[in-house]
Amino acid sequence: MYNIFRVSGDFLHLVSIFIILTKIIRQRSCYGISLRTQELYAIVFITRYLDLFTTWTGLYNTLFKIFYLASSIYIVYLMRKPYKLTYDHRRDVFRSIFLIIPSVVLALIFTANYHPMEILWTFSIILESVAIFPQIILLQQSGEIENVTANYVVCLGGYRTLYILNWIYRLFAEKHYRAWLVWIFGLIQTGIYSDFAYYFVKAYLEGKKLSLPK
User: Fold this and answer.
1) Is the separation of the CB atoms in 170 and 177 below 8 Å?
2) CB under 8 A, 24+ apart: contacts of 98-103
3) 17: pLDDT confidence band, cut at 50, 70 and 90?
4) Entry's PANTHER family (predicted)?
C-alpha cells in the first residue's frame, strides 16, 4: 500500500544513493565510504529482489528495485576498480562475515516458511538492519567527517524513520497488516541511525565539524 510516508522514504533513499554516487564521481574518490557497507547493501538488494524474475509487482516497485540493484553494484564496482586507490581500507576494518553469518542463522529461525525466496527475503531484512555498521565504524576511526558522507548517513536514517511511520500508518489503515519482522529489525536499524543523528545535530547546533566518539 502506497502512502506519503512510504513514497517519501523511497525517494529519500534515492537521494542517499545519489549523494554517494555524486561524491565518488565528482571527487573521483571513495575516501570515507565503507566498501564493506556497500557490498552488504548489494547483497541485501540481490537477495531481496530476485522476485524481479518471477513476479510483477507494478511499475513503481520494479523501477525502484532495478535502480537499487544497479546502483549498489555500480558503487561496489567504482570502489573496487576505478577509484580503489582512494579507498581507505585501513579504517574499513569491520569484517562483514560477523554480520552475514548471524543474519543467515536468524533468517533460518524467523522465516515464515522455508521456500528459498522467503528465506532470502528474511535474510535481506535482517542484514539491512546492520549493513550500515561498518560505515559507522569507519567514520569513528576517521575523526572529522565530510559533510557529504554525513548527509548520506542522515538520509538513510531519514528513510528508515519514514518507513517506520509507514508501518504505523498501515497498521491502522490495513485490517490484516502485520509485519513484526520488519518492525523489529527496522527499529534496530533506526536505533543505529539515531545515535549518529544525535552527534550530527549536536555538531550542527554547536557549529562544529562532525566527529564520532571512538
Assistant:
1) yes
2) 99/40, 99/127, 99/130, 99/131, 99/133, 99/134, 100/40, 100/43, 100/127, 103/127, 103/130
3) very high
4) ER LUMEN PROTEIN RETAINING RECEPTOR
Give the residue carrying C-alpha cell 536514517. Answer: 157
Q: How far is CA 126 from CA 22, 100, 103, 200, in A?
A: 28, 9, 6, 25
Among 158, 161, 156, 159, which residue's Cα sits nearest to residue 139?
A: 156
Q: Is 107 helix (H, G, I), strand (E, B) or coil?
A: helix
What is the grid cell recorded at 99?
554480520
pLDDT single digits (tens) 171-206: 888 877 768 899 999 999 999 999 999 999 999 999
CA distances from 54 to 2, 59, 65, 73, 107 (A): 22, 14, 13, 21, 21
152 or 209: which leads in pLDDT: 152
pLDDT in tens, 97-128: 999 999 999 999 999 999 999 999 999 999 99
Dihedral sign computed on CA atoms, order 54, 59, 65, 66: positive
Other CB atoms within a 10 A radius of the CB of residue 70 amount to: 11
Q: What is the pLDDT of residue 179?
A: 85
Burial of 2 (0-12, 13-18, 19+ CB in 10 A): exposed
